[in-house]
Specification:
mainly alpha, about 260 residues, globular, Serine Threonine Protein Phosphatase 5, Tetratricopeptide repeat, about 0% strand, 13 helices, 2 domains
Length: about 260
Amino acid sequence: MKRPQPLMPFALLLLLAPAPRAQTPATRAAAAAPTRLQQADALYSQRLDPRKLDESMGIWEALLRSEPSNFEAAWKLALASYFKGAHASEKSLRRAIFLKGVQAAQKAIAAAPDRAEGWYWRGVLNGSYAREKGVFKSLSMLKPIREDFEKAARVDPSVNRGGPDRALGRYYFEVPGFLGGSKEESLTHLKRALAYDETETLTHLFLGDTYASLGRFVDARREYQTVLDAPVQPDWAAEDKENKGKADAALKKLEGK
């Protein structure tokens, strides 16, 4: 029988273990450097500056060229495309940007069909494109748009602060009744969206519009005033300030009603 070998002292094991590499200033800087996605997010937070917006979109586009299944880059490019398109001055340019965003949203769906962002933003962008064309020139798009929002609501109704129900609420508001629109259905979805964020200014703005269309002016004023009184969310400051301006204009139109 072989004699058992003595255990190596723990102190000797430590001496024999490879020493950790000392971090140089260069390696420390590399470890702390923001990723490309983080850089794009930081630029997008300054999206009111068109150059910053374009830079953020450029990073997401570059990431998708090298990684077509990069879900984060895809849905964020779709989001940014909506913002840029909504603020473009020419109709033809808005259409082109929205269609480009649709392509990004489709990549997000392909990369992660079990996530809501791709479905939601594809519906938003196609809806924005259809609005530019006009409802009667976009009849074939109505059902797919609604189905994208419904899919997003089934997957994750909380995405974009109740976005799927908010989008459905606006869909039913804008589509004529004989094509499936319904002001009551609009109210149902918009109220449901508030369950995910009671301070979301766009939901309250849309509620005000729907109430006003129904002649419920007291309710409409309440919703518009809620937009004006709501705190500005740091991540959505650009949108919140824009919504406050629209609510103020809407309140003035209701004077005397």
